[in-house]
Amino acid sequence: MSHLTQAQFNAARIRAEEVIKNICSRIEKLNLRKEAMQKMLQDLNIAQLQEELSTVNNSFNYEALRRFESIGIRANSFLSAIDSYIAYNFDLEITDYQTAISQMGEYLVGSSEKVVSEALALADDELLKNYIRTASKETTYSDSHTLFEAAKTKMQSSKLYKKAIRNTQKIFENKGIKVEVNENQDLSETIEKLNQEQNTALVNKEVRNRVLTSIIKIIKEQGFIVKRENVEECGDHAKISAVKPNGEQVNFAVYLDGKFIYKFHEYEGLSCEKDINDFEKKFESIYGINLEDKKILWSNPDRIGKQGFQIINKKEK
């Protein structure tokens, strides 16, 4: 027997895990001093988020995921502001990007003095907060308002767009991205947007790869042979083709959003249905979630040209 089934699964938990891993990875790549790194992790409440994620149950849903993704967005603004500050204040033709990052790390530790804390509280913009930190290192200020205004002046006067545009391009070249930037763009917004796009793509790919790894593990346990050349990267999805020694075959297409499509074919009798049921149980076991809203769309009781074809599609609740 063969059949076509549609189902959906909740990938919220693994996506939240990848969001937090992505933030930590980005911070580690900055190569900051230990004190600066700890301060940044503390400001973003990473330890608290990791603890919260470790205690959520298997019914973890998209409302909870939004809390984690909002932290991801805030972290992106925080880290993009560092890139923006470097674009406006360093000449990357002379100072390489990593050296600029190291110098910025000294400012990120920040002072616990009341004046600096109050001035930071007045600023909504992460880039302006970086100017407040650097201004507080250069001169001693008696009140937060004076420091705040000095930082605003410093920020406005440092926007040398021709240099900043080239610096922005070099920052993203360092990250392996070629970008075109012009004088009509708000560079801070451009940097934040590009960073967000890049890291959303990285999180999506990690979610996809975790599903991909699990699928390969399961079908190997079912007796399929999966070689390196059987796994093909195809832009927004990856393909897996596998075969058993008896000729039974399976094909998968695994997409960046967690959706995947698979087809079992060249089966005799009811063994196709057995492999599909076994795959579902093992997949659910790995992720601790149930496949939901399963619906058989097509079945073939014939014993000629047997095949099973299933679609798994992530859907927000």
Report the count of strand segments: 7
Query: What class would the helix/strand composition place it in?
Result: alpha+beta
> What does the overall shape look like?
elongated
Order of helices and strands: EHHHHHHHHHHEEEEHEE
Helix content: 55-70%
Major beta sheet, strand line-up: 2-3-4-5-7-1-6
Distance between the termini: 33 Å
User: How big a fraction of the residues is strand?
Assistant: 15-25%
The number of helical segments is 11
Q: Give the biggest sheet.
A: 7 strands, mixed
Overall mean pLDDT stands at: 79
Whole-number radius of gyration? 25 Å
> Which blocks of ≥5 consecutive residues have pLDDT under 50?
1-7, 303-308
How would you explain this protein's 3D organization?
This protein has 317 residues and is α+β, with helices and mostly antiparallel strands. Helix content is 57%, strand content 15%. It has helices at residues 12-28, 34-43, 46-55, 62-89, 97-109, 114-122, 126-138, 144-157, 161-174, 187-221, 271-287; strands at 2-8, 231-234, 237-243, 249-255, 260-267, 292-300, 306-312. It has a seven-stranded mixed beta sheet, with helices on one face. The radius of gyration is 25 Å and the shape is elongated. The two termini are 33 Å apart. 30% of the residues are buried. Residues 1-7 and 303-308 have low confidence and may be disordered.
Brief rundown of the structure:
With 317 residues, this protein is an alpha+beta fold. The protein has 11 helices and 7 strands.
